[in-house]
Amino acid sequence: MSQPRLPFDPIDRAGDLWEEHFGDATAMRLATSVMRVQQLMVSALDGALKPFGLTFSRYEVLVLLHFSRSGMLPLSKIGERLMVHPTSVTSAIDRLEAQGYVERVADESDRRRTLARLTAEGQVTVKAATDAVTAIDFAITGLTERQQGDAYELLRRLRRAAGDFPA
Taking the complete model, does pTM exceed 0.90, yes or no? Predict the structure, then answer.
């Protein structure tokens, strides 16, 4: 982990100023902390995946294909499962295809639909990349296993309340 850039917690300082100017800062501190943790995690995960020419979002596509029964899925299904815009899926598949990790194939049951299929090289890469992200514990540092579970449940509650999935 890199050295702290400031000799103080900037979110704590912002919270103090928020309270001076606007009132209670509890929600602001939490939202800002979640956003900062997300930045730190993406940076660490992308760093672990860089030797494979992957970002975390492209790694997620490979994992999703790896988990599928046939090693292939329609591009629309990839977007649904990863909750991303179709343009993002197309971009990710373009990059992964250029790297030789996936290939596009026509759906035999519906020729209007395109499938992404994991290649043999993609299989090898997803396994090696998974070793890399698990070696850094998915960038989860400073929490016990129980704390990780508690944090997951709290964030899951927020996601459910926001309508991310049915109650």
Answer: no
